Amino acid sequence: MNRAEPAAGAPLLELEGVTVRLPVEGSMQAVLQDVSFAIRPGEALGLVGESGSGKSMTARAIDRLLPPGAAVTGRVRFGGRDVMTLSGADLKRFRGEVAMIFQDPRAHTNPVRRIGDFMTEALRTNARVPMDEAARRAVDLLASVGIEDGDRRLRQYPHELSGGLLQRVMIATALLTRPRLLLADEPTTALDVTTQAEVLAILDNLRSELSLAMLFITHNLELAAAICDRTVVMYAGQVVEVRESNRLHDQPLHPYTAALAAARPSIDATAHRLTAIPGRPLSAFEAPAEACAFTARCPYAADVCRERRPALVELDGGLTRCARARELFGRLEVELHA
Amino acid sequence: MGPAESVHLRFFVRRLAMLLVSLLVASFVIFAAIYLAPGNPIAALSGGRSLPPDSLHVLEARYHLDQPFIVQYWYWLSNAFHGNLGISITLRENVSDLIASRISTTAGLVLYSSILIIVIGVGLGILSGFKRGLLDTSTLVITAISASLPAFVAAIVLILVFAVQLQWFPSLGNGVGFIDQVRHLTLPAFALAVSSLAIVARVTRAAIREEARREHVQTAVSRGIPTAELIRRHVLRNAAIPITTISGITVASLIAVAAVVEVVFGLAGLGAYLVQSAQSKDLAVVQGISLLLVTTFVVMNVLVDVLYAVLDPRVSLGSRAQ
Amino acid sequence: MSVAAGLATAAWRRYRAGRQRRTSPVLIASAAVIVLATFVAVAGPLLAPYNPDLPDLSQYFVGPTPDHLLGFDAQGRDVLSRLLVGARTSMLGPLAVTLMCMTLGSLLAVTAAWRGGIIDAFISSGLDILFAFPGILLAVLAAAVFGAGLLAPVLALSVAYTPYVARVLRGAALRERAQPYIAALEVQGASSVAICLRHLIPNMLHLIVAQATTLFGYAMVDLAAISFLGLGVQPPSADWGVMVSENQQGIIQGFPIPALAAGVCIVFVVIAFNLLGERLYERGEARR
Amino acid sequence: MPEPVLEVEGLRKEFGPRLAVDDVGFTIPQGGSLAIVGESGSGKTTVAKMIVGLERPTGGTIRACGRDRSTPARSTRERRRRGREVQIVFQDPYTSLDPRQTMEEAIDEVLRMHQGWQPKRRMERVRELSDMVGLDARQARALPRSLSGGQRQRVAIARALAAEPRVLILDESVAALDVSIQAQVLNLLADIRDETAISFVVISHDLAVVRQLTEQIVVMWRGRLVERGQTADVLDHPQADYTKLLRASVPKPGWKPQRRPAVATG
Fold first, then answer.
1. Cα separation of A306 and A327, whole Å?
2. Of B126, C131, C230, D164, which one's alpha carbon is 20 to 30 angstroms from that of B237?
3. Domain encompassing residue C256
4. pLDDT in tens, C36-88
5. SS3 C237
6. Residue C3 maps to a domain
7. For chain D, which chains pass the contact test of at least 3 CB pairs under 8 Å?
8. Number of domains within chain C
9. What is the CATH number of the domain that holds C123?
10. How far is it, in rounded angstroms, from Cα C78 to Cα C56?
């Protein structure tokens, strides 16, 4: 396949100040504000946030799946090329190299077409691979996601498969065009925990085999921390923290990340009360223009937080959007879990 | 045979059983209604004239009037099954023969209308479903009005414009020869089609919009499937299910409304004959035509169901689209 | 006809849902037409400037004059007066059909959805069988058996429409019944009747009203057609359907106004009811 | 050991040929709390529905406050008395409230059903309950559609508490909430347990939530109980294979997803 190889060490995907506005009741409302991050080839990046934080919108912006009327500023680059200006064959190739899997596999498969048709559609229409060849590759990939009777599955309809099985079909389908980046939007949220573990294990294996990069979107901080190399935390349409996953829980940089970790009950220890975050999560268009979006709920909010929106700053190898990040560094974890 | 096929088969068998029960009950209602009709059946049979006693007995025996109700029903039904629907009291002819002589007009009218509904209605719906703008807006407005247009009002307007003013089409009669018959059926077919056509167009448009919004269409977009394929394989294919359904149901219901149009245009069809017989209380004819129309209606509805099951793989598992 | 009926339901809902939300002028205009028609139906005989039933063959199809705004009909009667008086039967028939269908349909639908099991199966298959009769056909049959007039067609249409209404409402009632808030009330110990009357039915009221409104339009079309065929309201009574029929010859003879005027009245009222039904339904859905 | 407030014995439910619940039994002492954990299809929600009377058991007995409730209530009085024994809060706060009713109206309706109080007394109680679940007067007069998910779930909790039940069943009641809101509601539930003598039955697939709220636990798998014990014990030292698998599948920092040895496709 003819791929534009980026220079060694260059990021595979790069977002630079991406802002998305959507028409809501006549006026344009921001759903993403100045989102920047990068994914290196083969890297797994987690994207964590509560409802309305803009995490799914980010994936849609990357894959150019935004609803009609959306206004995008900033840049999305994939393999060094500007995604927003791609068209024709380039766009087709881009979509072959970036695959997407979704939370609800049932809604995302056409109910009147068979699994085989669904899996091989892109290969047949875009790469002109003959039907039997495409089917053979589909059966192979089904085997690698743990579905042994692929021939039979190809003849079935989506409603004949369980949710967990269908999600594995989705993963196999996503890999069929040999992508370099996988956008996974809450792919295991609707599954039982044991099925989730299974699906994630499959994904993990295949990813390292194929050195596939992944953007893993989830509301579950522990999950992102467990399976991703780095994690981006979003709040109200903004990136508030980017951190190596293994340090996310021990040394969070942003009060929101720390509070989110503290708010989850633990499976290992019984606490009588949790450290809840007061108030409710803001959506991007509710976020104040001239202040930190988290101010209203932040135990560390000070005057400086209400004066202007803080910039993303580097700290301890990560990024944080907190005006008091330096003075709070090292204190957040300890104090919130007290 | 795989499990899916056997489920399909079971669906069809069950559907067929329901069809038979419906027909049985419908025929019973048709027969019982006439049986319970006020007035003496002999009087109805004789057309109100008084008969000598032995003629009365002959009539009673011939029509099994001396038998219990349910036995009479059975005789009527089995005769009907063999194509014997009794004798018209006004025309003194076999009802079956009378029906046979008029059936082609009604069938032609309904067929012509159905073609108009499917070609224009579905076509317009698809166009306005995909293209927003002037065409879409005007389709919406025009169909909102024509969906409320009763067939007989549409008929007089069409006659006024196309027969009286423009003189493009004849306003009355059946015509002779194929071309002339088609010409004679054109205005009636449009009159019959106009409100159904509007409804089909609106449902089609809505179905296209709805299917185009589906998440699985987004999946296909994200996989780089070309737009033409996307529309054909996902939007149109899936929208075909509600479109087929509404078209089928609409076409089935034309059978009854055809009567009105036949009367306006003076067509010698079944519907006009039914109305005429109802007015003259020629009950054997009313029974016969009612039975035929109900049967056609029920069978067409079953065909819609079957077509639906064929188009939607989910239906055979009993998860009917709600 | 279970599946076909279910499909009709789904299609009906799609037909409604496909409409785009527009501002309320349409709603206001529709309501105005309906209010006016209702007023005329009640007060028509008082408003009529002339005797609607007095024939004067010398005035055969005489066109509009300043005194007779819509001219005269085939028997030389004042068209405007006949329109005003004819509103009553033209509106009363559909009203009766709508009331009967909605009462019966809602009752059957809620009972079937609430009780479920055998009762639901029984009601549903009964409705399926009734579905075998197209409305007009049943009305013609009824008129043949019981004689022409308004009563037989009204009863026949009520019977023929009830399955459609009950199907749509049963679906809605089943969806509503499956809502956890209904279960919460059951757990609280509220009685079935109280839950249905205080929660279930009010929450599907927008659909019931929308159905009733649309049904009125259909009933009006079908009853007018029956009268037009000579099996409904009998001449010389003034009725819009009858008027179209009586003056049909005028279309060909170049005197279209009497027939058209009655036709236009029917079309206006039906459009108004259809649009109102759609808007009411959309509003109800949007509020949820 | 205090008097049991809820006793379930040999509970069984068949849906046609499918056995959804088989031989499930447990008791909850006055003021105690029990978790029923399991995945979809384990039968845990069916058990909850049978306890509150939304499903009729095929076999077995359910006793609450010493009274049998395995068969449908025969009278309105009996039904209401059962309502004062066991209440339930569902998963989805969006659909568990009548969209046409404000919190005040919803709670007032419950109070009218269960208590013979005057309107003034009822209004006072409505205010107490909304204070208790942390909603202000404006929110108490708002329709559900203008409340957030967390606020709606508070209304649902208040409505359940209005009947002053002895047992409150929480059927995945915090599963649909955002993490930060979930913590608020979990704290609210902890406070309610502290302040009242109510018993909780927590139906959940989330082991951390269960640990937060309960003392006792039963683990269900394919309609049967596979393990029971003290919540902390079972979670720290699971015995049954299925519990071990469940425990090992919960993601946390440093966790590595594992494939199950045998892949069941179906």
1. 17
2. C131
3. 24-287
4. 988 888 887 888 777 777 777 777 777 777 777 777 777 778 888 888 888 88
5. coil
6. no
7. A, C
8. 1
9. 1.10.3720.10
10. 9
